[in-house]
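Reply to dn_fold:

You asked what the input looked like. This is it:
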Amino acid sequence: MSNFVFILILFFFNSILLIALILSSINKKSPRRLLKFLFMPILLSLFISLAIQFQLQISEITLRQLFVNLIVILWCLKSFSSYKSIKATLLKDVLQSVRDSIYKKKFFTILFTVLKISLIQIICFSSVFSLNYLSGYSSLNYLDILGISLCILGISIEITCERQIKNARKRGDNLITTGLWNYLRHPNLVGLLLMFSGLHVLALSGVGSQWSLLGLMVTISIIYKKLIPRIEGQLLTKYPEYHK
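and this is what came back:
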């Protein structure tokens, strides 16, 4: 089995799960289920990729691969109860497109939208899928240490941000300007970017997995071209003092 066929299988599997998730959200007449379990297809596709690797004995499981899979599994599980505003902002156009397509009965448009989202998900997480195909040498090298450090730093920043947001809500503070927000405009997105950067640095030690850097480029593009402008616009509209 080639790397391309391996990724193609995961793409179709991920797409089927995403279709099921969207149909379930449509049935419940609420986008909440889609927003909550947006990364459930990736989590299940991860286990499928491991099953394929084990069944076909494509390569040995390495410490590098175990670390990457563990990080992504924990991140996906965490995403079920976090990133609500980020996911809602990211999928704003998609949700509107799905609503319009349902109303106008354009089911092929919905299918195309699902396939596009699935492809973006697979590309963004291509680091872990490429390592689950050929993970490289079992021993860790300096790139692995760098990747692990970036992942730990990114996740630590994310957890700190989530704790700050929770404490600010308890105090009734809507606009956070203290802590990490005193130094960065979007520290939670910085943490997210560092974690994904670490995953893709780890993938560089896999065999023929350098192509997965495309996933990092797509992730950076989504954060800088989609998320940040929309979040900035929302904050400026809701809090005029944010301009300062």
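The CA atoms of residues 48 and 173 lie 43 Å apart.
Hope that clears it up.
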